[in-house]
Every structure is written in C-alpha cells, then in structure tokens.
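Hey, resending since the last one bounced:
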Amino acid sequence: MSTLEPEGLQPPAPDPELVFEGLPVDAPRVGIVMAAKSDLPTMERAEKELNDRGIRSEVRVMSAHHDPDVVADYARNARMRGLRVIIAGAGLGAALPGVIAAHTELPVIGVPLTSSSSVAGGLDALLAIAQMPPGVPVATVGVDAARNAAVLAARILSL
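The structure tokens again:
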C-alpha cells in the first residue's frame, strides 16, 4: 500500500468518453434539429445527404422559445449520446442554433429557414444565426441550405 492511497480507496475511474473513444459506435453522429414540424421538408435534405454518405443522424423538433429546458438538455447530453455535430434549422428570430451552441462544445451549424412570415426571403433568420455573441460560435450556411449543412458536417467529421 502506498502512503498516498489510504487503505480501501480505489484509483479514480477512467473517463467513459475516453474509454469508448476508439470503439465503433452505432449511435447517430449528427443531430438534426428544427424549431417546427413545418421545417421538416427542408431539413430532410440534410438527413438525406448524410444517409447518402453513410453517416448516421437523428432528427428532432424542439423550440428554443417554447421548450428551452428540452433544448438545453439535448445540447448538454449530445456528446455523451455519440453526437459530434449538430445541425439546427430555424426561421424568423432563429434562436435555436444559438441556444444549442450555448449549451454544448460540439460544432453547431445553423440553417436559416424561410417561412410565410420571413423578412426579405429569410434574411431575418440568416442575420440572427450569423450574429452570435463572442464565445457562442455557430457556423452558418445559406438560407434553406440544409444539404450544405450536411456536407459541412461530413467534412467536420472527417477531420
């Protein structure tokens, strides 16, 4: 027995994330989230691109305004569940990508979405996503460019 380790104490357990880092994982690698079900037709383009590339993804609908705790929990637990990138689509005020980025260290890619109430063809959402405060980075693709977000996610995963 070492003088530094009292009898009966075990060394600290290794970090599970480090233990499982090199093992093949069947979990989704990319999370695709959107603020409303009406955004699904556009955001499905990201899912299709990822599927075509053999990258597993999951799709969720959650609102940063109506369910902020759900969004925060999703973002905080994303890495533990195997996600490595999150694609977040939102229109109008487009809060979802920034709220997710505020609660995770994972890369977040924002997709500005158009809607019937959009200003200047989605310019409102584009500016809301692109103008994040310091320390809350969100990559931004073009308006309704969910496929480009998936291509960017694939490139991030290949690093």
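The mean pLDDT is 91.

Sorry for the duplicate.
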